[in-house]
TrEMBL record:
Protein's recorded name: DUS-like FMN-binding domain-containing protein
Cross-referenced InterPro entries: Aldolase_TIM, DUS-like_FMN-bd, tRNA-DUS-like, tRNA_hU_synthase_CS
Chain ranges passing through the membrane: none
Organism: Immersiella caudata
Annotated keywords: Flavoprotein, FMN, mRNA processing, Oxidoreductase, tRNA processing
Catalyzed reactions: a 5,6-dihydrouridine in mRNA + NADP(+) = a uridine in mRNA + NADPH + H(+); a 5,6-dihydrouridine in mRNA + NAD(+) = a uridine in mRNA + NADH + H(+)
Keyword tRNA processing: yes
Length: 428
C-alpha cells in the first residue's frame, strides 16, 4: 500500500497524456453529473459562476443509440433526439430530446457521462457525441435500481472485468479518433484494500481521470461523506499519472481548494451544494455567493435560450428559490415565471415565444369509428341466452342504448390487418 505522507510535490510527475481536444481535470472545481439537475441551463449557470468544467447528466447508451443529432436552428443548441422506444402508441411520433448542449459556451468544458454495461454499446454511443464534447466519463457509481438492475452504475464496481473492458474499449476506439480523454466516476468499496485493488486496475486502462465519490454504495446521500480512503486513491492515481477528482460534501470553490490540498487530490466535484446554489463556484475572492434572485433570473434566461422543457426548468428553479418558493410554485409557463420574478419586457416577449414553441401539439386525430350494421332484433330469444335486453322490452329507436350490437361469436376487436390501416394516422 502507498504511504499517506506522499505529498503532491514529491510525487513523480508521471502523467497519462491528455489528448489534443481533451481536458486535464487537474486544478479544476467542477459541476457533478446530475440527472434532472444537470440539464443545459443548470450547466450554463454553473459555468457563469465559475465552474471550470461541467458533467452532463448520465445518459444511457441505449437511449442515445438511434437518436438523431441536429442543430436547433432557432437556438443554435445541439440536440440528440428520438422517438421514445417505449412509446405505446405507434402513431405518436413526438421526438424526445435525449441530450442537449451549447456548442459555444460549453466548448472544451463539457464531459459527457455515459450509463452502460457493455463495451460495444458504450463505444457506439460515445461515437455519437465524441466530436462535440471534451471527454467521455463512465458512470460506475450510481446506486439507483434503474441503473444497477441493468448492470450499469455501481453494479460495475462488482463486475470489475466488465468495467475495465468498457474503459479499455473506449480508450482504444474513442481517444485516437476524436482526441478526447476517457474517465470514470466510482464510489468507495467497503475496505481500503478493496478500493485500492480496484483503483490500481482502473488507472491502468488508459483513462486520464478518475472521480471518487467518497461514499460506499449502500450509503445514503444524507450521510456525511467519508474521507478515510481518499488520500490513498489520490496517491494511486498520481503514481499512474491519472488525475484524481474528489466528490462528496464539497461545498464550493473555497472548500474545494482546501480539500484538494488536505487530501493531495487533483480536483473537486460539487453536486448538491451547486444544485441549490450554483454560485458556490465563485470563491470569496471573486465576490462569493450570489443573491438568489439574480441567480434565478439568469437561470430562466438560459432556460429560455435553450427552449428547456418547462417542467425541468421549474424543478431546478425550485432549488434556487428555496426561501421564496411561493414565487414559482404556482407557475405553469415561462410567462408566469418571468412575471413572478419581475424580469421585464424583453424577457416577457421571449417567454411568450418559448411557451408557444413548447406548447404541446394537439393529440393526433382519433381513427374514424367503424360503422357497423345494426343487428336485427330477434323475434324470440333462446331460453337461457345471456345478457342484453329482454325481448319483451326491445329498445325503442330513441333508446339511449346507442352501442351497436354485434353477434356473440363476432371478434371483440377488429382483425389486426384492419387495425393497421385504421390506425395509420397521418403525423405532422
Ligand atoms: C439529483 C441528482 C442526480 C444525480 N445524477 C447523477 C448522475 O447522473 N451520474 C452520477 O454519476 N452521479 C449522479 N448523482 C450523484 C452526484 O454526482 C454526486 O456524486 C453525489 O451527489 C455526491 O456529491 P455531493 O455530496 O456534492 O452531493 C446525482 C446526484 C443528485 C443529487
Amino acid at each position: 500500500m502507498t504511504t499517506p505522507e506522499l505529498a503532491p510535490k514529491t510525487a513523480p510527475q508521471k502523467m497519462v497524456p491528455i489528448p489534443p481536444r481533451g481536458v486535464d481535470y487537474r486544478g479544476k472545481v467542477v459541476l457533478a453529473p446530475m440527472v434532472r439537475s444537470g440539464e443545459l441551463p443548470c450547466r450554463l449557470l454553473a459555468l457563469h459562476y465559475g465552474a471550470d468544467l461541467v458533467w452532463g447528466p448520465e445518459t444511457v447508451d441505449h437511449a442515445l443509440i438511434g437518436s438523431t443529432r441536429r442543430i436547433n436552428p432557432r437556438t443554435g443548441m445541439l440536440e440528440w433526439s428520438r422517438i421514445p422506444s417505449n412509446n405505446a402508441k405507434a402513431a405518436d411520433t413526438t421526438e424526445s430530446i435525449i441530450y442537449r448542449l451549447d456548442p459555444r459556451r460549453e466548448a472544451g468544458k463539457l464531459i459527457f457521462q455515459i450509463g452502460t454495461s457493455d463495451a460495444e454499446r458504450a463505444v457506439a454511443a460515445a461515437r455519437m457525441v465524441a466530436a462535440d464534447v471534451a471527454g467521455i466519463d463512465v458512470n460506475a457509481g450510481c446506486p439507483k435500481p434503474f441503473s444497477t438492475s441493468g448492470g450499469m452504475g455501481a453494479a460495475l464496481l462488482r463486475t470489475p472485468d466488465k468495467l475495465m473492458g468498457i474503459l479499455e474499449a473506449l480508450v482504444r476506439e474513442i481517444v485516437p479518433v476524436f482526441g478526447i480523454g476517457v474517465s470514470v466516476k466510482i464510489r468507495l468499496l467497503e475496505t481500503v484494500e478493496e478500493t485500492e485493488r480496484l483503483v490500481r486496475r482502473l488507472v491502468g486502462t488508459g483513462i486520464t481521470g478518475l472521480t471518487v465519490h467518497c461514499r460506499t454504495t449502500p450509503m445514503r446521500p444524507r450521510e456525511r461523506a467519508i474521507r478515510g480512503q481518499l488520500r490513498m486513491v489520490g496517491e494511486v492515481c498520481r503514481e499512474a499519472g491519472v488525475a484524481c477528482v474528489m466528490n462528496g460534501d464539497v461545498e464550493g470553490r473555497d472548500a474545494a481548494e482546501e480539500l484538494i490540498k488536505e487530501f493531495g487530490v487533483d480536483g473537486a466535484m460539487v453536486a448538491t451544494a451547486a444544485e441549490k446554489n450554483p454560485s458556490v463556484f465563485r470563491g470569496e475572492a471573486k465576490g462569493g455567493k450570489a443573491d438568489w434572485k439574480e441567480m434565478a433570473q439568469q437561470f430562466v434566461w438560459y432556460a429560455m435560450e435553450a427552449e428547456n422543457k418547462f417542467g425541468n426548468t421549474k424543478f431546478s428553479l425550485a432549488h434556487l428559490v428555496k426561501g421564496a418558493h411561493q414565487l414559482v410554485s404556482w407557475t405553469k409557463t415561462y410567462e408566469d415565471v418571468v412575471k413572478s420574478l419581475g424580469m421585464g419586457e424583453e424577457a416577457l416577449k421571449r417567454a411568450i415565444e418559448v411557451d408557444n414553441i413548447l406548447r404541446k401539439p394537439p393529440p393526433p386525430p382519433k381513427p374514424p369509428k367503424v360503422k357497423e350494421k345494426k343487428e336485427e332484433i330477434p323475434a324470440k330469444r333462446k331460453k337461457g341466452s345471456q345478457g342484453g335486453w329482454s325481448p319483451k322490452s326491445p329498445p325503442s329507436p330513441s333508446s339511449p342504448l346507442k352501442k351497436p350490437r354485434v353477434s356473440e361469436d363476432a371478434p371483440k376487436s377488429p382483425p389486426k390487418a384492419q387495425l393497421a390501416v385504421e390506425d395509420a394516422i397521418p403525423v405532422s
